[in-house]
Amino acid sequence: MDLIFKALNDPARRALLDSLRQKDGQTLGELEAQLDMTRFGVMKHLGVLEEAGLIATRREGRFKYHYLNAVPLQEVVDRWIEPLIVGPTARSVLDLKHRLEGNTMAKPDFMMSTFIDCTHDALWDALTKGELIARYHFACQNVQGDMEKPGDTVDYEFDAGGTMLSNRVISIDPKTRIEMEFQPHWGDNPTTSRCVYLIDPQAAGMKLTVEHYGLGPEDGGIHDGWARFLAGLKTFAETGKSVRFFMPMQMDAPA
């Protein structure tokens, strides 16, 4: 917590976070152009934000992309104020077929990371077994299917009936990485996109990173859904308790 408050106690760092909220996945050069300071100064501020876990980064060739990581802020606000809602950000729709079949991977539209005090096996089971996902998911207490091999599908069902979301496994590296199609069933024009779980054992506990690719212009609510999903997962994996971080349901069940 101390690192988070220290990171937020500077107007330049708050400006960087505001910029990433408006447009995720920016390079150092893009962020530098928005502040009246040297490149080294911007790098130093980004380092403080990254150390506090408020941004996540991904290197692609010569470039390093920076993403707002809402999970630490979610934990702070859940503790003292009210649930944090990451606002929607309009983005261009990427061609899913090109991304799935192409030789190069596009940079993600956003990333979120969190550290979880649990064993490797416990985190893997919580991510891949439907009966366990159902114990912490913010909207669905009925989750059908497990993720064990490519082609496996997990369906998240609204409590009132009807499917909210389907995840179909594209590729899986046991206990390390899962790549999935993300198929929403709410709204008038749902966009099929792609998400990835990256699992990284630490000296103490585990690091989980979520990458999401190909979000459509109306998919802003997905950001908040991920923050609530990860908050529930962390609580469940660390305590065994089922805590659901409910959201104002924009993802309405079918009539």
Key attributes of the depicted protein:
disordered C terminus; Arc Repressor Mutant, subunit A; two-stranded antiparallel ribbon; 2 domains; seven-stranded antiparallel beta sheet; 9 helices; alpha+beta; 9 strands; Alpha-D-Glucose-1,6-Bisphosphate, Chain A, domain 4; 255 residues; single chain
Describe the structure.
By secondary structure, the chain is α+β, with helices and mostly antiparallel strands. It has helices spanning 2-8, 11-22, 28-32, 39-51, 71-80, 96-101, 120-128, 130-133, 221-239, and strands at residues 55-60, 63-68, 110-116, 142-144, 153-157, 163-173, 177-184, 193-201, 206-213. Strands 3-9-8-7-6-5-4 form a seven-stranded antiparallel beta sheet. Strands 1-2 form a two-stranded antiparallel sheet. Strand 6 and strand 7 (177-184) form a beta hairpin. Helix 1 (2-8) runs antiparallel to helix 4 (39-51). The radius of gyration is 18 Å and the shape is globular. The model is unreliable at 82-104 and 250-255 (pLDDT under 50).
The major beta sheet can be summarized as:
7 strands, antiparallel
Distance between the termini: 43 Å
CATH class of the largest domain: Alpha Beta
User: Based on CA inertia axes, which overall geometry fits?
Assistant: globular
SSE ordering:
HHHHEEHHEHHEEEEEEH
Give the uncertain stretches in residue-range form.
82-104, 250-255
Structure annotation, total helices: 9
Instruction: Report the sheet-strand fraction.
Output: 15-25%
- Major sheet strand order: 3-9-8-7-6-5-4
pLDDT average, as an integer? 83
What is the CATH architecture descriptor of the largest domain?
2-Layer Sandwich
Q: Can you tell me the CATH superfamily of the largest domain?
A: START domain
Query: What's the β-strand tally?
Result: 9
Radius of gyration: 18 Å
